[in-house]
Amino acid sequence: MEYLFQQGEISKGIFRKGSHLKIMDTNGVQCLEADLMDHHSLHEAMEGVDAVFNLISPMPGADTDFLPPNTEGLLNLLEAAAEAKAKTFVHLSTLDVYGFARREVDPSTALNPSNEYQKSKAEAERLLKEFTKRNALPRVTIIRSAKAVGSRDDSLVVPILKMMGSGKVVLPAAGRMSFSHPRDIAQAMFKATTANLAPGREILLKSFDSTPEELGKGIVSAAGSGAAVKKQGMLSGPAVPKYTSDQLKASVLISDQASWKDIGYQPAYDLKSTCEEIANWYRKEPWVAEES
């Protein structure tokens, strides 16, 4: 969300109670607390809002029930947006709704969620399209983003930095896959608010393609480290969360970017610039790689 704030033109940011706002640059945005399960609190927070960017979802791998916030909570948010007469609703989804079968995907590929997180995200998309057909939300767009990598990503980037400090980065043996930089995701979400798209349009989003090994080597090189980057072997396991390991092994690639033209999206980040951005952040915040 911080990346969206830094794009400008956002008047309000709605957070759940207990969010760690101190680490974020809110850039003068009015920050409000609301409960997805409390329609009244959402209605108050949504007053005067013209466009809604929905990034609400527990992270994969979290010990929680994904379904309530991604379904009932989403419907509450949609109803509040419709009551506020919002013109645009941009929903951030994920390539993971295609499941973890290794393959290339395009907008015609059938969804194949394989775990509770993925199923809840796929159900959120279904509910969003169903709501759009019944209600007056003129512009509704679904953005399915490839795995996000950038500063503060604690699912892959921080583990790589921690392993780098020990002199050896071990990553799952995986193929080439698509990645997204958070700032590119923010760019696409903004552009979707002004694009003339059919309601419920799906945009598949990436910044670049890379193997996890290439990404690891890029971060190590940009940080000026001499750490070795190796693929997982029989006796070595990667220090990344299980969900992330499965995600990398799936190696899902976006094979079609025709939809980008419809929103005027052009990725600003490639593998090199992403690794440099991560390395610069690490130099400023070296504590992120300290063992807890």
Task: For the structure shown, list the relevant keywords.
13 strands; alpha/beta; globular; four-stranded parallel beta sheet; Rossmann fold; 292 residues; 37% helix; three-stranded mixed beta sheet
Please explain how this structure is put together:
It is a single chain. With 292 residues, the protein is α/β, with parallel strands linked by helices. The protein has a single domain, classed as NAD(P)-binding Rossmann-like Domain (Rossmann fold), CATH 3.40.50.720. The chain contains eleven helices and 13 strands. It has helices at 2-7, 39-45, 67-70, 72-83, 116-134, 157-166, 182-192, 212-222, 242-250, 258-263, 271-284; strands at residues 12-15, 30-33, 51-54, 88-94, 104-105, 139-145, 147-148, 168-171, 177-180, 201-205, 208-210, 228-231, 253-254. The longest helix has 19 residues, at 116-134. The protein is globular, with a radius of gyration of 19 Å. 42% of the residues are buried. Residues 20-25 have low confidence and may be disordered.
